Amino acid sequence: MPRKPKKHSHSLRHRLVTFSPFARSKAMATRNRGATKVIEKPKLQNKDLATSSFNGFKNNGKDKTQQSGSSASSDDEEFEGDVQADFVFFDPKPSDFHGVKVLLQTYLDNLQWDLSGFVDLILGQPTVGTVVKIENDEDDAVYSVVSALNLGRYKDSKCVLELKDYLLKVCRDMDVKGKLKSLVGEHVQDVGLLVSQRVVNLPPQLLPPLYNGLFDEVEWATEDEPTEELQSSFRFKFYLIISKIYKHKSADQNGGTVKNGEETLIYNRPEDEIFFMLSSWSFSFPSHAQQVTANEMQLKNYRPMGLVMVVEASKISSFRKQLHSLIDE
Fold it and tell me: What domain of life (predicted)?
């Protein structure tokens, strides 16, 4: 792709605007921990790397990311200073398979599905997608992955068939289910599955360049891919987003209101609140994957939920502006 720049990371100062207190607190927490401009790359504390592995969920498998996290955790007992972590953006490649699979292990909650095939689709599309790593990391661990897959292009893949069946199964609202059937059926060629998974405490300053890069690549692909068929596959009209939220345990009993000033919903990722506000329709469902987060006390009155949102591609420019407003100056 002739217009595609070399991928790199950025460090951006930010101010906070009118989003939920939890979204603001997550952004401010990392800001206060000293993400500063060091060769245009942010600093992250050693303990953050230890607590943020596995995207906030338990991992029972053995992998390089887990070994790195365990090492950081044990080292933190003797070292309390900051460790500079220079995050770098890369095109996905086959050697990232294990790291990306670890990040996506609870993408569809606790469903046993063709996750390996799904990872292969992401890694097989290097022109649109990014993985984030730490520069000169011997373990070559993956700390974030973003991509956009055309569901129509891969409609016959086992993993995509299982993903669509799963979403239709967990959607209990019949009106929304009809819209979902239409989206993944007759309109499937127009749908981009927006995949975004990362470790919990990845500096929020990385989010604007990460999403900007993804949506720029989608736009470039509509002209730069080698065939008209491939170019057309990136002309999305809708983005389908699968994420997680936390819902207050007493919200349903109190008519959607919660006492003691607690929020009814908490978004796991700050950008999801923006996607939700821009979505044409959405639905949530109970999540069963066991959670491990850095905010366990704050979330003790909440239950994890899956969240599915559909956002028109025409709203992405607004999303990009609002994300910058949340993270940047």
Answer: Eukaryota
